[in-house]
Structures are given as structure tokens and as C-alpha cells.
Amino acid sequence: MADLIFRTGTMDAGKSTLALQTNHNHAARGRRGRLFTSHDRAGTAMVSSRLGLVADAEEVGPELDFWRYTVDALTQGARIDYFICDEAQFYTAEQIDQLAKVVDELQIDVFCFGILTDFRTRLFPGAARLVELADRTEVLQVEALCWCGKRATHNARTENGVMVTEGEVIVVGDVDPTEHPPVAVDEVDVAYEVLCRQHHRRGMTAARARAVSLSPEPLPFT
Ligand SMILES: Nc1ncnc2c1ncn2[C@@H]1O[C@H](COP(=O)(O)OP(=O)(O)O)[C@@H](O)[C@H]1O
Ligand SMILES: Cc1cn([C@H]2C[C@H](O)[C@@H](COP(=O)(O)O)O2)c(=O)[nH]c1=O
């Protein structure tokens, strides 16, 4: 029986690395797979990991119909044993339904990787549908950490270094401004930081925590 599996974690938890490792392990045993992604940081039609691995992939736009794609490929004689789907939070709910149908009706394993919630702590539609439909949802074991040392559970967005909770849902970016410069969107530097829930609620990024600890007057937490 084929499975629809959703592997999730915050940004920087190792999802793309695991996606590429999963692809490698299955391909090494002679299974035929296809790699998909959407809005990868490194560019269009590629899966990239912060550990340096990169692979070509097929870019998923909202118009892609996974069911039609798969039926067409099989009809043309292709063999497909599995799909690896990175950045699956950006897929539409309909596309996740199509992937579930591919699993059930065509016996193709589908491994999806993605974050659950956006910078506002709201579920991405693709991730929500995956939680609803997947045979298994697994949280990655590698813990991304908040600056306080607790497990990071939420993704914060900063604009010019200040945490924001309003804006476009999709803005490609990275978590480590020292290694990867923030993305300039309309002359605003956009970056991300993973935080525990308490510090996300309080808007307390590492930079703000440093500023507060250096200020002469202790600020009351709200
Ligand atoms: N210099 C480094 N040395 C060791 N591990 C690193 C380094 N930089 C990043 N990582 C690890 O890479 C992983 C992030 O990989 P990636 O697959 O790109 O994450 P995700 O797709 O979840 O955002 C994290 O587990 C992090 O610990
Ligand atoms: C929280 C959040 C993230 N994004 C973007 C930022 C990155 O480009 C990807 C996540 O990639 P990763 O491999 O998990 O690090 O998603 C976004 O567009 N909107 C958000 O709210």
C-alpha cells in the first residue's frame, strides 16, 4: 500500500535535507521518483538544503494538476514509484487532494515536506490539507531552537529587523542573516527567525531581547 506522508517542522529544521536524503535512499534501491518544489530560496525548479545539497526539481505552480500530470506520464510509459514534494505548504489544498488520489488510485508513495504555519501563526492551506489527509504527519526530530534555548515552534518574519504580523503570506526568505542577506522586498529587508510560542506571542526576537537586556530600565513584558 502506498502512503501520503507529511514531514514538518519550523524553518531550518532540516526538511529539504531530509527530502533530498529520502530521494537518494529510494533512488539508490532502483525506485523511480520525481522531485517537486515551489518557491525554493535558491531559485525556480530546485530543492536546496542549507547543508549544501541541491537537486533539480519540477516547479509547482497553482495550475499544476498532479492527477493529470501523473496519468499523462504513466500513459506515456513512464514508471513512477514515488513523489518527493518540498515546500508543500505552498501547494493548494486541491493539489494535496490530487496527491492523495495519486497515492490511493495509482499506488505511488508521496513524501511531502513543509512548514505548518506562516509568520502570523496561521496554517498554510496546503499544510492544513496535508494534516487532514496524510496517512502520517511526522514532526522532524532535529529541534530548531528559539534564542532562549526552548524548542522553536513558530516562524517569525522581520522587516528591517522588526518582527511583523501583517503582510503578504508568501515572501521567500531565510533565517540566518549573517550567512544569507535578508531579501529586499520593495526596499524592505525581509528575514525570518524561529521562536518558541511565548516569544512569538511577545514579539521578542533575539535582537529585541538583546536590546531589552541592554536598556537601563527593565521593560515590562505584555
Ligand atoms: N553549518 C552547519 N553545520 C551543520 N548543520 C547545519 C549548518 N547550517 C545549517 N545546518 C543544519 O541544516 C539544517 C537546515 O537544513 P534545511 O534542510 O535547509 O532546513 P529546512 O528545509 O527545514 O528549512 C538544520 O538542521 C541545521 O541544523
Ligand atoms: C513563515 C513563512 C515562510 N515563508 C517562506 C520563507 C522560505 O522561503 C520558505 C520556508 O522555507 P524553509 O525551507 O522551511 O526554510 O517559506 C513564507 O513565504 N511565508 C511565511 O509566513
Can you walk through the features of this model?
With 222 residues, the chain is α/β, with parallel strands linked by helices. The protein has 2 domains: 4-139, 3-Layer(aba) Sandwich (Rossmann fold), CATH 3.40.50; 154-214, no CATH class. The protein is built from 6 helices and 12 strands. The chain has helices at 15-28, 66-75, 93-106, 125-133, 197-201, 206-214; strands at 4-8, 33-37, 46-48, 54-56, 58-59, 82-85, 109-114, 136-139, 154-159, 162-164, 183-185, 188-195. It has a 6-stranded parallel beta sheet with strand order 5-2-6-7-1-8, sandwiched between helices. Helix 3 packs parallel to helix 4 (125-133). The longest helix is centred in the N-terminal third of the chain and has 14 residues, at 15-28. This is Thymidine kinase. InterPro entries: P-loop_NTPase, Thymidine_kinase. One of its GO terms (molecular function) is thymidine kinase activity. Substrate binds at residues 170-173. Keywords: ATP-binding, DNA synthesis, Kinase, Nucleotide-binding, Transferase.
Bound small molecules, deduplicated: adenosine-5'-diphosphate, the ligand Cc1cn([C@H]2C[C@H](O)[C@@H](COP(=O)(O)O)O2)c(=O)[nH]c1=O
Please give the oligomerization state of what you see: single chain
Counted beta strands: 12
Order of helices and strands: EHEEEEHEHEHEEEEEHH
Round the mean pLDDT to the nearest integer and report it.
Answer: 94
CATH architectural designation of the largest domain: 3-Layer(aba) Sandwich
Strand order of the largest sheet: 5-2-6-7-1-8
